[in-house]
Amino acid sequence: MSEPATSAPAFPTPEAAEAAFYAAFEARSLDAMMAVWGDDDSIACIHPMAAPLNGRAAVSLGWHSMFEAAEQFRVQVELAHALRATDQVIRIVREHLIIGQETEPRPPILATNVYRRDADGWRMVLHHASPLHVGGTPPARTPPVVLH
């Protein structure tokens, strides 16, 4: 059974949805978090080193568990790349998390955030976060792949 759709209006831009996503993350507010997400069960979330969460109920439960298990979060977000289409935007960001009383960010997490424009505005449909490789900082831009 899926969670009831939120009655909150969607966001006017993908950037506004992303700002609300990270504000909800820092506030550890499940209601604010789920207001960012799409209203149907096509949404998905993959937390670092975890199995995919598919549909509103699973995504909500995943965030609830994370908020219950962790202390306060502070997140600094750095845009790495963006792809835009008429009704969909993909934003790849580096997340620098500070948890609890820590004073320095943890190693960065690379996240892909996908937003879809619906009739009333923009909502998140996918968040996939993964730790970056250990032992260095990735290049600002990925070099082109040479096939031959």
Please sum up the structure shown.
The radius of gyration is 16 Å and the shape is globular. It has one domain: Nuclear Transport Factor 2, Chain: A.
Describe this structure in words.
The structure is a single chain. The protein is of the alpha+beta class and 148 residues long. The chain has a single domain (14-131), classed as Nuclear Transport Factor 2, Chain: A. It is 24% helix and 34% strand. The chain is built from three helices and six strands; from the N terminus they run H-H-E-E-H-E-E-E-E. The chain has helices at residues 14-27, 30-36, 56-69, and strands at 44-46, 53-54, 73-84, 88-99, 109-118, 121-131. The protein has a six-stranded mixed beta sheet, covered by helices on one side. Strand 3 and strand 4 (88-99) form a beta hairpin. Helix 1 runs antiparallel to helix 2 (30-36). The longest helix is centred in the N-terminal third of the chain and has 14 residues, at 14-27. The protein is globular, with a radius of gyration of 16 Å. 24% of the residues are buried. The model is unreliable at 1-6 (pLDDT under 50).
Relevant terms:
Nuclear Transport Factor 2, Chain: A; 148 residues; alpha+beta; 6-stranded mixed beta sheet
